[in-house]
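Hi! If you just cloned this repository, the fastest way to understand the data is to look at a raw example. We've pasted two of them here, unedited. The first protein comes first, obviously.
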Amino acid sequence: MLKYSLRRLLGMLPMLLLISIVVFTLAKLMPGDSLSGEIDPNNTDPQYIEEMRQKMGYYDPVPVQYYNWISKFAQGDFGKSTRYKIQVSDVILEKLPNTLMLGGTSILITYILAFIMGTYAGRKPYSLADNLIGGFNYAGLSIPSFVAAVFAIYIFSFKLNWFPSNGSVDITITQGTLDWYLSKLHHVILPALVLGALSTASYTQFLRNDIIDNSRKDFVRTARAKGTPESRIYNVHILRNSIIPLITYLGFDIVAIISGAIITETIFTYPGIGKLFLESVGTRDYPVMMALTMFFSLMTLVGNLIADILYGVVDPRIRLD
């Protein structure tokens, strides 16, 4: 297992190098530059902008610009945000806890709902409850997240006034107190419910279909023939095998926790790194945009590795060599 993990980690290096080239190239192909948004004919001296471009190396040859960027990036220097005027790492670290909280809460909701509905529908296929769960899943698959978010805000924030419609915490509460943490939890519940409920559909259907498929296999018939209690058959023999497909999603869920739901964060005005990424594209804040893109790519590769390792943990028949 350790050798496999080290080999996969070393294999990520050329992949990350290739991704960095693509990210840098796409950023250079975008119109304008990081200083384009700073130009105001009434307040900005064009000579000052040109001096800043010279200082930041925008007129250097493209290979030199790439080398300067990737060498600093490899040392942990992501550059300075042209919008916030502070280090990119500080900007990301400021938004990251909110995204971790939103992503973690939404995934917890997703797995709880999917496990309950998937196991029940799998044990009682083609029943009324199974059809109702299937209808809920199809609705979740067909409704776009931005539509669900708008309706959730209208119903639960404006009409019922149960949850706040924006932000991540009440700014009037002192930071670090119990009320402050409760306020953060209160603000994250509604966007997390939107994300979690919509993501539940595919998880539930995979779990349901796998339980039905495994219940018809020979090892289950053998267990029944030996007189094994039905509850043990489902909980030990069927469920453990049916959980394996969900492990595939778990690796990608790590990316979802880090990257956040860009659309949902934007609609709820939730200050996470998903919303930060969208803002960096709109304001041409290339240092932030490129750092986040590389970060998302790294987490995707790490998520795939974790998913493969979990395969071997859940199913001992899978050997990682």
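Ok, and the second one:
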Amino acid sequence: MLRSTTKTALSSVARQSTRSASTYGALHDFGTHHVNKGVGRLVPGIMEKGEGSYVTYEDGRKMLDFTCGIGVTNLGHCHPKVSKAAAEQCMKIVHSQNSISFHRPYLELIERLLPTMPDPSLDSFFFWNSGSEAVEGALKMARLMTGRKGFICMQGAYHGRTYGAMAVTKSKTIYSEGTGPLMPMVYTAPYPYFHQLGLSPDSTPEEHTRAALHQLQLLFKQQIRPDSVAAIIIEPLLGEGGYVPAPTSYLKALRELCDKHGILLIVDEVQSGFARTGKWWCIEHSGVRPDIMTFAKGLANGFPLSGIVSRKELTDKLKPGCMGGTYAGNAVSCAAAIAVCDAVKEEKILENVDVRSKQLFAALESLRSDPEVGKYLLDVRGQGLMAAIEFARPPQDIDIDLATEGVEGCPSNFAARVGKKCIEKGMLILTTSIYEVLRIIPALNVSEADMAKGCEIITQAVKEVAKEG
């Protein structure tokens, strides 16, 4: 009797939940209750529609989006050419499992990507679903290709939240806390960033390179021999760790070290690739050749797709069947990515990134030179439309941030408060890293007017937070 009563009660709750989900407020509450608590959310509400640089919520709010889904919708929301290509592919074939047969969009996407590669040696592709999976595949390939087990990753790096990717992610403890042991034989070297090297904010890229290479050489001497290292993995522009471009001198030195010791260089372009920094690939700014490159995010403008590219002479060492995945290289996602490649060229996206980047950095530098708030801006940095403002840490946090010793600190949680102000003013924006960093990731085809609007919102938000203290 008790069991029957309980079952009836549960059924009643389920019916009520379904009915209550028919209205906006109730649906939001329904989601808050039933969506896994491990998923965080920045803005309350239900995003209903996206178009270009704007998103509209179900309650009618329309917001300028300077997050692009964390660098995914690079061509703006619901780009008509991309959506049309995906819709047309849906009427041909949606799923063609990659271990059974080729499908046309997979091969045509390779045709589009080959001319964009940062080095002509990168000619062997595998498509997966997410950035984390691409990193997992790159790590697996590196071990198989070299017969070695060790990896060196960078302090502050973010490569994903699956187990291999978590092992080489060093940006925040939240991503892996309580989940160990992680993949073994992973060693961490400092990224060439003044915070991680105990240098002052006005130190030079050359100083960063020297200090970071010194620590890497110590790692070789004290923790793992170079001939045990399968690969070094690096983001050419540190993403989650603070939007920090790696000095060209450091990347070139890594290439030389890898060549000298038979180590593969994995370049993670998941966030920085696909025109985000003003070139097809961020690593092009340095002229350095990757052995393996991972990419995702902007590749298909919101459709799940990632890729790993390497040299055929290396991938020919792999046994058929060792790489795969049920949804890997989905036909609809590949069709969307082909349309993205075409749109980047036809709509002169790289040219727009160059112009809008200059507009953005001019506004940020103007803010830094403002006598009212400039003292709080520790750094303005980035490349293309992957930009950041770092604010000085508050004085009470100086014990964990020795590099800012002697710098006048800003009020506590400055970046988060600026981000909240921006949201209140109608613009989505994100913070990042363990430092006071505001990251700016607008659509690559953002208009001059919308860029000006976004810059004005940021400026107002910074001034208001500084005034509040």
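That's it. A detail worth noticing about the second one: Confidence is low (pLDDT under 50) at residues 1-21.
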